[in-house]
Amino acid sequence: MKILVLNCGSASVKWGLYADGKPIDGGLIERVTDCAQAVREVLFTTDVSDVDAVGHRVVHGGLRFTTPTLVDDEVLDAVTRLVPLAPLHNPVNLEGIAIAREMLPGVPQVAVFDTAFHRTIPPAQAMYAIDVEVAQENGIARYGFHGTSHAYVSHRTAELLGRDPAGLNVISLHLGNGASACAVRGGLSFATSMGLSPLEGLVMGTRSGNIDPAVVFHLHRVAGMSFEAIDDLLNQRSGLKGLCGDNDMREVLRRRDAGDEAAALAFDVYCDRVKAYVGAYYALLGRVDAITFTAGVGENAAPVRAASLSGLEAMGIAVDPARNGSGERGERLISPEGAAVAVCVVPTDEELEIANQTAELLTR
Ligand code: AMP
To answer: Which residues constitute the catalytic centre (predicted)?
Structure first.
């Protein structure tokens, strides 16, 4: 089975072509200003003549979409209604689907949602403690994101450890440009750090993650900032960028090594937040078998992995310095031999997971 995967982001289009679960072609178009044009370019320049289906990454599936879904007009309407919850992402995802439908008529289009994996989180985790009527009327809930990555990484972790995912509790740490933690219990999402939007939770490249909501009121009422300006501040000028001026962890590490105090503090704020979530999810899960790092920072930044899990020996959590710093790539174990909790690095592959989920839907 041949599957084309399209991952249309706010500024890039990632794509991959898979034959029976194996990658045969793929690419990344960056600094995209017209997603439709970029998708046309991919379809014009790639041999898609015998594609069986196209799998699309769709960021927000609300509470409705819990599994990969065959796209029809009604599904597109539903995804369009979710645009206010993901204003930067759902519109470009919809554009990609529209172009693929137009250029590959008759080929099944499948939407794979970032939020879907998290639809197993229990109400105690999904609900914010606000007036339930206001929440219900306005769709205020913890949706969670990076679901495709957390699903892939937690299943690969079970494979790496030779364990059945159904019996494994994993804390998955997706640390990339965006960052989120996920407590995975028996292969299912049980808690996750992103919420109504991808702004909640961990410190990110340019996003604040958790703050006291009163900061927003204060900046509006006292500092006179508009909601648009506060939105921009928290999404684009916060996180590592806000703390030290650089959003790329490579640069933060380089400056920290050179004795830069702002970079060192940004690093500490970032890693402390990760550690706090590890502790919280350890408590929620009751038992943790593995902690897995993934995405740009998680896969590459050994100092972040070491600092985020430092001092947790009493919880059975430790990172072996030689394994952690080996510079090895690929799926690997970085905890000491015989540690109670396996600490792993698993490169994420959202496109492969989308291809697999798309193929699975078609053969069901
Ligand atoms: P992603 O969203 O998964 O593509 O992650 C992108 C981010 O990963 C970049 O903005 C960097 O901050 C970070 N990153 C990539 N490579 C490295 C590296 N070798 N060391 C530290 N951070 C890295």
So the answer is: 114 (proton donor/acceptor)
Q: What is the pLDDT of residues 281-304, one digit of tens each?
A: 999 999 999 999 999 999 999 999
The finding on whether 239 has its CB within 6 A of some atom of ligand 1 is no
Strands 332-333 and 342-345: what pairing?
antiparallel
Query: CA 221, CA 231: separation in Å to the nearest integer?
Result: 15
Instruction: Give the bridge partners for 342, in sequence order.
Output: 290
Residue pair 3/53 in contact (Cβ under 8 Å)? The answer is yes
Domain 2-113 grouped into CATH 3.30.420.40: yes
Architecture of domain 163-345: 2-Layer Sandwich (3.30)
- Between the CA of 247 and the centroid of ligand 1 the distance, in Å, is 10
What is the Cα 171 distance to its own chain's centre? Answer: 13
From CA 213, how far away is CA 43, in angstroms rounded?
A: 44
Is it the case that residue 241 has pLDDT exceeding 90?
Answer: yes
Q: At what angle do helices 90-103 and 35-45 cross, to 10 degrees?
A: 40
Is 4 annotated to bind a ligand? Reply is: no
